[in-house]
Structure formats: C-alpha cells, structure tokens
Amino acid sequence: MTKDLYSIPDIIMSRLPVYYQHLKKLKESNKTYVSSEELAKLTGFSSSLIRKDLSYFGTFGRKSYGYDIFCLFQQIRIIMGFNYNKKIILIGAGHLGQALAYNKGYIERGYKLTAVFDKNPKLIGLVINDLEIKSISDLENYLSENKVDAAILTVPEAAAQKTADRLVAAGIKAIWSFAEVPIKVPADVLVEEQLINEGLCKLSVKMNQPRINKSEVEEDFDCEQK
Amino acid sequence: MTKDLYSIPDIIMSRLPVYYQHLKKLKESNKTYVSSEELAKLTGFSSSLIRKDLSYFGTFGRKSYGYDIFCLFQQIRIIMGFNYNKKIILIGAGHLGQALAYNKGYIERGYKLTAVFDKNPKLIGLVINDLEIKSISDLENYLSENKVDAAILTVPEAAAQKTADRLVAAGIKAIWSFAEVPIKVPADVLVEEQLINEGLCKLSVKMNQPRINKSEVEEDFDCEQK
DNA sequence: TAAATATTGTTAAAAAAATAACATATCCTA
DNA sequence: TAGGATATGTTATTTTTTTAACAATATTTA
C-alpha cells in the first residue's frame, strides 16, 4: 500500500467502528464470506459506499465471493490500531468513571487500563475492576514511572481543564475527554471529546420534529430582540 | 418560519449540541452578544458554517453585533425540543446503567428519568438517584399505567433485541440504545445507537496513523487470501 | 468448456456540504 | 450626520461525499 494514509477522512473513520462491530458478530456465525450488499443491509450504508470505504485502504475482496470475514476483520483492526498494545489510565472515579472502569471494550481494542485516579479520599483505596483507586496527587509520580499512552478524563467539569493540563505536562499525548466543553491542549496532543448526552440530544431533536413542523416556530421564541 | 423542517440534515443536527454547550457556558459570562467569529474560535467550526447552520432555522443575528447569547440559546433549546417535557426510563442497571441514572443531563434537556428496571434480583429494590430499581417483569405494567416518551437501553448485548421488542410492544417510540450492534425496530420507532467505545476507536485510529504510514501495511496482514 | 451469474474495484455523475465572497444593515465616532 | 467599522445572511464557488454505472474477473452450472 503506497497511498498516504496520514489523514483518513473523518467520515470514513466514523464508519470503521460500525464495520468492526458487524464483522465481529459475523465472525461468530458460520459464514466465511460477506458481500458488500449484505454488509449494506446490516449497517444501513449503501453497498457502493462500503466498497469505496474499503478500497480506500486496499484491495480486500474476492470477485463474485465478497470479503473474507475474518481477514477483513483483521484488516480493520490493523487500520484502527487495535493490534497495537496501549496503556490507558482513568482520571475521575465518579459514577461515569466507575462505569468506564468496568467497560469491557478495552482489551479487544488493544488497550489495557492500568490505573484509576481520583481526588476524593473516600474513593481512594477502593478497588474497582481489580484496580485500586489511587490519589490524584500520585499522578505525576505514576506517569514518570509508567509508560502510558492515553488517559480517560471523567473529572467534574470544573476540574477538567486543570487536570488535562497536568496530564499534558506529564507527557500524555491522547485524551478521551468526557468534559462537556472542549479542553485546550497543545497541537501534538490528541483529544477525543465525548459529549455523553449527545445521543439524548439527537433523540430529542428527532422526537421534536413533527411538533416543530406544525407550529410557526418564530412565535414561540420571539426573544424581544433589538 | 415557513421552511419545512421535517428533516434537519444530520450534519447540522450533530453540531447543535456543540452550539448548545458553548452557549450555555457563554450565558454564564458577562457577555450579551457573541459573533459567529467568536463561536468559530470556541467550536472549531468556521464562522461561515455557523452562520449557515443558524440561518437554516431562521434569522437570529443582529448586524454588527452578533447573536444575543441568551436568545440564541433559547432558540436552540426549542429546535432541539428541550423546552418540551419528556419522560424517560432506564432498562438495565449495570455499571453503565447506574452511571446513566446519575447523569445530570436530563433535566436541562427536558427529560425526567422516572423509572429504572433490571432483571437481577440483587439489584431490584436498591435505590439509585432516588429511584428504586424495579423488576423488569413489571415493565409492561408500568408502561400501561405511565406515559413514557423514551427508554434508555443498557442491558447486556444478548438481551438487547428482546428487551427492545418488549419496549416497542409496550408502545415506546424512542430508544437510546447502548447495545453494540443495531437493534431492529419498526419504522415508526426512533433509535439512537450509542457505541460507547467509539471515542476509544477514534483515538486509537489517530494514534495509529503515523505507524501505519511508515510501514507497508499489506505485509502486516497478508491473510493468505484465495 | 462455454454461458450465465455474482460481486468486486473503479470511474463517472450527482448530491451534499463547506468555504469564500459580498451586499446589506447596523453601530460607533467624530 | 457622514464615514468607517463590524458582522450578518445569502449567493456563488469549491470541495467533499455519495450514488450509480460498469468493466473486469472469478465462480458456478450445464
């Protein structure tokens, strides 16, 4: 493969996890091959789009057969970097943080959760999913002694930026942030913002559409402008 | 507003929660107006795009001033349906379910979490965030006696489709699903799929890009095809 | 082995989305 | 009150993304 992959288009990247999930399921069936048409039925994307997406990365299919499920699954894992081992830590062991500590998704994606930190003395020392919650004051010390590839940020809104600054200062280059508003980091640090309530918003918008269509919306919110 | 809004383009819809978050923050500052240029700095979208997005819904700005923060915030709330009261229930009180039971995001978006269900007898009766966990066997009964607008689905993968079927049969028209693979529902039911590990995938892909560029990828995964 | 069938990978066309440009309107200052 | 500055809303242009079409090729069937 000679193509420069430095920047996979976001739109393609956003579909990779969907392909991954379906191939994972298919792998457990007794089928060996899957066609773009079948994948289209499963994913909701058009077969044409699927073939195009895959061809961006290489030539994986077999004419008149389709794609070898296991092989394609492996390819996508490699493209997504799942075959590469990464260590990740979690900062903030509140309700969401704890749920993420029990998340089963790390291993198959090449992550190992190696430490959990919190500020709350009542939480420090507790064990969640075999990891003892450490004091956030040990963060820098821990990071100087352990190579860590990424951090999950689930601290309260008010502490998010400060904590991110500490992570960056200690050398962390990738952050999965659950802060509600973007945190600022240097250009060489990756941040994946996760608006936890985005799905709730989308659902609300969609539920609301019939209502919005019926009424002359302006009246509702004449904001006494000007 | 005469424009038919029946289907807000997904791409615009996906930016609404971002505008919402920033306006919420701005509202707490001492500023009254914000320009598309300032919003661009905050959100990372271009000012042109922001003006275009907003103009899709109406004319909210004020020449040479910008947008009235509070007014725009209200408008976006109305577009997203946050001003409309909705009742939502949660099915599956595992780690993720519990975290979502404590989620602070419902109220401001017009949702009220009114019940939590689980199958596990050890959980039934426990109280999380002031709600006593009910037995899943009471689901149909509850739904026949209480008007509910949406359901959060956080049951284990294996139970997801069956549970969704029950919800649909009981009249639920909107589901926020955390199942890893799409659940099948009739056309008149809204489903918002939430791949909880999508952010983790994206982070992994991005971390992986420099590595993928360096190597001739094919070699890595010669799947002995054919 | 030849014809019919299936399905890819790619090219061409269409549609959608983003950006740039600008006319217009309002505000501010002198 | 005239002129410069500001920032919207919209139109034009460019770019990106998706869909459609199809040639190429492998498989299956007769």
Automatic annotation (TrEMBL), chains A, B:
Domain called CoA-binding: residue spans: 81-182
Record's signal peptide: none
Protein name: Redox-sensing transcriptional repressor Rex
GO aspect biological process, one term: negative regulation of DNA-templated transcription
Record-annotated membrane-spanning stretches: none
Domain of life: Bacteria
PANTHER family: REDOX-SENSING TRANSCRIPTIONAL REPRESSOR REX (PTHR35786), REDOX-SENSING TRANSCRIPTIONAL REPRESSOR REX 1 (PTHR35786:SF1)
Alphabetized InterPro entries for the sequence: CoA-bd, NAD(P)-bd_dom_sf, Rex_DNA-bd_C_dom, Tscrpt_rep_Rex, WH-like_DNA-bd_sf, WH_DNA-bd_sf
Molecular function in Gene Ontology: DNA binding; DNA-binding transcription factor activity
Key words, A-Z: Cytoplasm, DNA-binding, NAD, Repressor, Transcription, Transcription regulation
Major place of residence: cytoplasm
DNA-binding positions: 18-57
Location in the cell: Cytoplasm
CC terms in the record's Gene Ontology section: cytoplasm
Family recorded in the similarity comment: Belongs to the transcriptional regulatory Rex family.
Free-text function comment from the UniProt entry: Modulates transcription in response to changes in cellular NADH/NAD(+) redox state.
